[in-house]
Amino acid sequence: MLIVLLQVSKLMISLCIFGLLLLSGLFKGAGELLAPSGRLFTYGPYAYNGKLTPESNVSFDKSLRRSDPSWGVRDVHKELEPLAEKAGLSILRIHPLPANNQLIVWEKIGSEI
Fold it and tell me: Which residue has better confidence, 10 or 6?
């Protein structure tokens, strides 16, 4: 799993091995630390509205959950967006990547005063 801290204005992280408590803390912390228009980058496979494809991602999710029930492929709309919105972040872009992965760019909402 790729976990890289780029700088205070940009973070990149894979969320598959994060339990929900850690996910909540990640978004809360990003909301507090990022400057307005700062970005959080998350990488990996994602589900959307409960739908996870292709079968390789379904198998990956099952293997993660066997290792630790709090781990798994995260649902963007059901799990991540509510946490992000609460922290003042929104999706700026979603980039498809090889091996059925995606890069989601989250942006801190607001402007500098």
Answer: 10
